[in-house]
Automatic annotation (TrEMBL), chain A:
<keyword id="KW-0812">Transmembrane</keyword>
<comment type="similarity">
    <text>Belongs to the binding-protein-dependent transport system permease family.</text>
</comment>
<feature type="transmembrane region" description="Helical">
    <location>
        <begin position="101"/>
        <end position="126"/>
    </location>
</feature>
<feature type="transmembrane region" description="Helical">
    <location>
        <begin position="232"/>
        <end position="253"/>
    </location>
</feature>
<feature type="transmembrane region" description="Helical">
    <location>
        <begin position="132"/>
        <end position="151"/>
    </location>
</feature>
<dbReference type="Pfam" id="PF00528">
    <property type="entry name" value="BPD_transp_1"/>
</dbReference>
<dbReference type="InterPro" id="IPR000515">
    <property type="entry name" value="MetI-like"/>
</dbReference>
<keyword id="KW-1133">Transmembrane helix</keyword>
<protein>
    <submittedName>
        <fullName>Carbohydrate ABC transporter permease</fullName>
    </submittedName>
</protein>
TrEMBL record, chain B:
<feature type="transmembrane region" description="Helical">
    <location>
        <begin position="205"/>
        <end position="224"/>
    </location>
</feature>
<keyword id="KW-1133">Transmembrane helix</keyword>
<keyword id="KW-0813">Transport</keyword>
<feature type="transmembrane region" description="Helical">
    <location>
        <begin position="99"/>
        <end position="121"/>
    </location>
</feature>
<feature type="transmembrane region" description="Helical">
    <location>
        <begin position="152"/>
        <end position="175"/>
    </location>
</feature>
<keyword id="KW-0812">Transmembrane</keyword>
<feature type="domain" description="ABC transmembrane type-1">
    <location>
        <begin position="66"/>
        <end position="276"/>
    </location>
</feature>
<dbReference type="GO" id="GO:0005886">
    <property type="term" value="C:plasma membrane"/>
</dbReference>
<feature type="transmembrane region" description="Helical">
    <location>
        <begin position="70"/>
        <end position="92"/>
    </location>
</feature>
Length: 265, 286
């Protein structure tokens, strides 16, 4: 690499880091600042009171639990339904396979706002309102196609002979899936979990419409903090808390997202 | 690929089909059904055929928001896709730093969508924000509430901040899956950097790239959360996108018209996706 090339890269990635990190710096800074006067403390002073408040308020604590519940459930559903489907697309040709891939794409591209109204009536009928199971199910509408694409690309990268050897070794189909296939595509599972997480944890429209009185997700708990006199420090503390599972997720998949995979359409 | 032909593979799709049927197909059919009715309550609806569609299509404000959504999508794709690919290409040459940089650009992807606007508005707030204070000190006025250009700038900036990571990650994943001998062979043949990209790298990442382009297209074309939280469509409807009008219809309980509007949005999105897939597959044949 030439000196010019190195300098260019340093400049570009420093600017990128500033651009990405600036809003986070702002958020963290405000989360440790007292923005509404509380007894004995002046506004503007540095404090951990905002974080203590987050964990003292039962509604905020409950919302963290709710969000974690439906995101985990959604990931489990997407993997359980997505793995066999991805295996079918990776290993077989069948009537209508291309059309199925396009149908999956079409449903991933259907905007959530469009589905919000009937989903509410349908789920009310089955008692899935105010219930994390409802949100976990509805998020499959856009996460399951993603899961199938990513898993398909990882399964395709495993040679067919691998499957055949396993079956000759006497593995039954479930035993092959759990003992051989899943370990072989572990990085793919990690990447899938990451993408399901980032689209489910942060989604607002459907999560809001499906929680009327209870089971509020973290996003709605933050919205509820805005009011006549918003305690912006508390809002930012809650935002920081909401980032922690995402940061953990990035940390777990950091080596897999860099290793390379190809998605086929 | 010489995969065996077997229709028994459909059994493997069964769980996915059941799940998608319940959460996507049935709701979509219900929207289609509402769109032909004047809906007072769910049990009290009158068949009116295509009247809602006719009303919306004749309404100039629908076409105005369609234009705004299309323009926003074009800007978002035009900025984010080339920038993301360029960053991924730069990153490829310094693979030691790939992991930290990918982690960095992934950060905004895990921020709850309603807080993206919250974080940016706080950042540019002249009283408490770092950027806001800096701009005041430099004498720059940034009035996102009443200056349409500034509102647009803020939404594009926040959207790029949010999604650039997706483009970089998927492009990098595709690029780093290309075996090094491909590039070396091209270099021996004396291919320029651009020629290597155009004829070797681009075709091999086109699958990942189409997913990125389609996802970014639909999410920017149907942008709701950020745009609504930043300025609720203002100033004077300058950022009133298709999804904001749809949400307003749902909010005012005109379910029939909301459903017709929703179906029109789905039709637009799917037409573009279908055309895109067709163009891509015809290129592959050639």
């Amino acid at each position: 690499m030439s000196i010019r090339g190195v300098t260019l890269r340093i400049v570009v990635f420093s600017l990128l880091a500033i651009f990405i990190l600036l809003p986070f710096a702002q958020t963290v800074l405000l989360s440790v600042t007292l923005t509404l006067p509380r007894d004995g403390y002046e506004t503007g002073s540095l404090t951990l009171l905002n974080f203590i408040e987050v964990f003292k308020r039962p509604d905020l604590r409950a919302s963290i639990g709710n969000s974690l519940t439906y995101v985990s459930l959604n990931i489990v559903l997407c993997l359980a339904a997505g793995l066999p489907a991805a295996y079918a697309f990776a290993r077989y040709r069948f009537t209508g396979d291309r059309h199925m891939l396009f149908a999956l794409l079409a449903f991933r591209l259907t905007p959530p706002v469009v589905l919000s109204l009937p989903v509410f009536f349908l789920f009310a009928h089955f008692g899935l309102i105010n219930n994390p199971v409802g949100i976990a199910l509805v998020h499959c509408a856009f996460n399951l196609p993603i899961a199938i694409w990513i898993l398909e690309s990882f399964i395709s990268a495993v040679p067919r002979e691998y499957d055949e050897t396993c079956f000759i070794d006497g593995h039954s189909t479930p035993s092959f899936f759990f003992r051989r296939l899943i370990p072989a595509i572990a990085p793919g599972i990690g990447v899938t979990v990451f993408f399901c997480f980032i689209f489910s944890w942060v989604e607002v429209v459907l999560a809001r419409i499906l929680t009327v009185t209870a089971g509020k997700p973290i996003t709605m708990a933050i919205n509820a903090l805005y009011g006549f006199q918003t305690d912006i420090g508390l809002v930012m503390a809650m935002t920081v808390v909401s980032l922690i599972p995402g940061l953990a997720m990035i940390w777990f998949v950091r080596n897999h997202i860099a290793r390379g995979f190809v998605i086929r359409t | 690929m010489n995969n065996p032909y077997s229709n028994r593979a459909w059994w493997l799709l069964l769980p996915s089909l059941a799940l998608m049927g319940f959460v996507a197909v049935i709701p979509l059919m219900a929207v289609l059904n509402y769109s032909f009715h004047d809906v007072f309550t769910v049990n009290d609806a009158y068949w009116i055929g295509l009247e809602w569609y006719a009303e919306i299509i004749r309404d100039p404000s629908f076409w105005a928001s369609f234009g705004r959504s299309a323009l926003f999508s074009a800007i978002a794709l035009g900025v984010q896709v080339p920038l993301g690919i360029w960053l991924a290409l730069l990153l490829l040459k310094m693979s030691r730093f790939a992991v930290p940089v990918l982690m960095l650009v992934a950060l905004p992807l895990v921020v709850p969508w309603n807080m993206i606007a919250g974080m940016w508005l706080t950042l540019i707030n002249p009283e408490i924000g770092l950027a806001g204070k800096a701009m005041t000190a430099l004498g720059i006025t940034f009035d996102y509430k009443f200056n349409a250009l500034h509102t647009w700038l803020l939404i594009v900036l926040a959207d790029t901040w949010h999604w650039i990571g997706l483009v970089v990650i998927l492009s990098y994943a595709g690029l780093s899956a290309i075996p090094e001998p491909y590039r070396q062979a091209a270099a021996i043949d004396g291919a320029s950097r651009f020629a290597v990209f155009r004829h070797i790298e681009l075709p091999r990442i086109s699958g990942a790239l189409s997913i990125v382009i389609l996802l970014r297209f639909v999410d920017s074309f149907m942008i709701y959360t950020e745009a609504f939280s930043i300025n609720a469509g203002g100033p004077q409807d300058a950022t009133s996108f298709l999804s904001l009008e749809l949400a307003a219809d749902i909010g005012s309980y005109t379910y029939g018209r909301a459903a017709a509007r929703a179906m029109l949005n789905v039709l637009i999105v799917l037409t573009v996706a279908w055309a895109f897939v067709r163009i891509r597959s015809s290129e592959r044949v050639r």
